Every structure is written in C-alpha cells, then in structure tokens.
Amino acid sequence: MEPLCLAMALILLLIIVAGLWRVFQGPTAADRMLAAQLFGTTAVAILLLLGQAGGVTALWDAALVFALLGAVAAVTFVRRSWAREADAEKDNDDV
C-alpha cells in the first residue's frame, strides 16, 4: 500500500502545480482564494497519505492544523470581502 500512497501523493503535488496557474492569472481575488483553498485541501490529503505510507501519526496532526487554517483563511476572506462591498455601497449611496 505504501507505493500506492506515494504515487497518489505525487499526483496531488501535480494538482498543486496546476493550481499555481489560477493564483497567478486571477482574474479576481475570489479565484485566487479558491486556488489557495485548493492548496490547503491538497496539502491535507498529501500529509494524510504520507502519514499513512510512513506510519508517522504526527503528519496526521499536521494535516488537522492545515485543515483548521484553511477554514480560518476562508472565513477571513469572506468577512473582508463583505466589508469592502459594504464600504463600496456606502460610498455609492453618498454620491
């Protein structure tokens, strides 16, 4: 099972490389944030696979930390986006 886990981890690494294109090309901040979420989710999967292949349970803990950080980053992005939209609407109403 170890070679299978390592092969799947390599495929996931290629997915991260493909996601870099969306980070650099954009076109919006939401596209970039979704690509960052892809990185976080894929990193969790890679850590789980490597932990399973190598029998290192500490990697499972690291995967949990990445999952929590990804959720916090998504919530922070949404809150900041809503705040900017509210400010823009407020400025448009004043005109």
From TrEMBL:
Q: How does it sit in the membrane?
A: Multi-pass membrane protein
Name it: Multiple resistance and pH regulation protein F
**Sequence intervals crossing the membrane:** 6-24, 36-53, 59-78
The record's annotation in InterPro entries points to: MrpF/PhaF-like
Q: Which keywords appear in this protein's UniProt record, sorted alphabetically?
A: Cell membrane, Membrane, Transmembrane, Transmembrane helix, Transport
Q: Name one Pfam family in it.
A: MrpF_PhaF
**Entry similarity comment:** Belongs to the CPA3 antiporters (TC 2.A.63) subunit F family.
**In the UniProt record, which is one GO cellular component term?**
plasma membrane
Q: Which domain of life is it from?
A: Bacteria
Where in or outside the cell it occurs: the entry states: Cell membrane
